[in-house]
Amino acid sequence: MDDLHLLTLLAVRLRSRGNVEAVRLTVGDLVGDAAITIDVAFESARGLEQVRIRGEEERISLTEAGIAELAAYLAADTDVAGRADLTTAYEAFLPTNRDFLAACVGWQDGGADLADLAEVVARLGPVLDRLSELRSRFSSYPTRFDAALGEAETDPRWVDSPRFDSIHTIWFELHEHLLATLGRDRAGER
CATH says 3-75 is which class? Predict the structure, then answer.
């Protein structure tokens, strides 16, 4: 399997039942090339029955074979030292994640504003820098957060709408990316 195929599987997991276009954009983010085409990799994954498309909105999800293939790739992707570094970065992410969730609840309840969310995102900077050093596929997150924060200044939907690459959508994707990379799930978090 080539990296594009495996990044396509990762993008399907990160987009959590997104459509082909959402997965295409996420792969572009992961490899740092927005113009990248994933059609061959996507069709290969379909042919290997690693992804499936469902419903009128053509939502994509991983099959059991796709989940297993992605888990094997990500497990092989890091040596022991690399895994320790990624785990350290993940553990540094967790307190900021709790603060982000509290800020999101505050946003929805009117007890927090965009500045509060921006402050939490800014505190994530050192973690994102370290993750980008460890794996280039994490390097698009700072730019994406900056873009979403900029859009949210004039359109509050960019804070938490699942229809945009909103602040919450990006955060959720980053969290899922960390979990996938470390072979963890949300149920096992502290």
Answer: mainly alpha
Confidence (pTM):
0.87
Q: Side-chain half-sphere of 164: how many Cα atoms within 13 Å?
A: 18
Name which of 124, 91, 120 is nearest 103 in CA terms.
120
Residue linked to tokens 């497990």 = 75
Our CA angle for 120, 118, 91, nearest 5°, is 25
For the chain, the domains span 3-75, 79-188
Integer Cα distance of 16 and 85 in angstroms: 26
Helices (H), the chain: 3-15, 20-31, 39-47, 64-77, 80-109, 114-123, 125-134, 141-152, 157-160, 167-182
Q: How confident is the model at residue 1 (pLDDT cuts 50, 70, 90)?
A: very low
Place of tokens 């509060």: 116
**Residue-wise pLDDT tens digits, 91-103:** 999 999 999 999 9
